[in-house]
Amino acid sequence: MTCALVDAARTAAADAARAGGAVLAATDRSRVEVTLKDARVDVTTSADLASQAAVVAVLRAAFPQHVIVGEEGTEPGSDAEHVWYVDGLDGTSNFTHGIPWYCVSVALRCGPDAVAGAVYDPVHDELWSAGRGQGATGNGVPLRVATTGALDAAVVVSQIQTSDPGRIAQFAAMFEQLMNAAGGVRFTGAPALILSHIAAGHFTGYVERAMPPWDIGAGQLILEEAGGRLTNLAGVRVASADVTDVVATNGAVHEELLAVLAAPPTVRPTPDR
Fold this sequence. Notes:
- With 273 residues, this protein is an alpha+beta fold.
- It folds into 2 domains: 6-142, Fructose-1,6-Bisphosphatase, subunit A, domain 1 (Fructose-1,6-Bisphosphatase, Chain A, domain 1); 151-262, D-Maltodextrin-Binding Protein, domain 2 (3-Layer(aba) Sandwich), CATH 3.40.190.
- Helix content is 33%, strand content 29%.
- The chain has 7 helices and 15 strands.
- The chain has an 8-stranded mixed beta sheet. A 5-stranded mixed beta sheet has the order 12-11-13-15-14, sandwiched between helices.
- A hairpin with a 4-residue loop joins strand 7 (113-121) and strand 8 (126-131).
- The relative contact order is 0.15.
């Protein structure tokens, strides 16, 4: 879908992502307030809120009528055709533990698709950016996905964020399938950053269930503009802001990865006692 705002929106997304990243970089982690969203592992913090507020301020100044939907709350607007999706701190658990893998994600959807977006990694001062039909860049350098053509040579990321034992068991079975098929499997956190690194050719694939739009909107655009592919588990391109399962790759290993995920998990015999 074409959108007349792509250029201005791409600039605003980059400025907003950097503003949120500046807040995170200046935050004293020892003073951050942490709140659990589930029994044990899904957390949010005062840093998430502060970063989102900085992002919203930039977007509101540039596009006062647009709706802004963030992980930490929604800002209403009169123009519901243009909706920003914001994650002020993607990789919250990593951030709270001092693990240097987290980012800010900002994307504008015009209809079903993201048309402009940016992901900013304040630890490494890396800005990933894309506009629909304009290509994608990392710190201004054009991005292109890896040429890896076989899953057994690919590094794939897969992860989950839950304390539910049933979902953990399902994930463990899927993770085993991936480990038996891929060249390597990682669990890193920060989906927007993962998708950006696939776009840059560092990872080859990514699988995660039930992803909200603020986690994947900018990353999907950056990946697709770099030549990659993002679908659900049925192989259908994601073209909405609905919560969705995600399979993302360089494109070349996509069908092979989907086939592995569609295969029934191996049932191992119970060992004799």
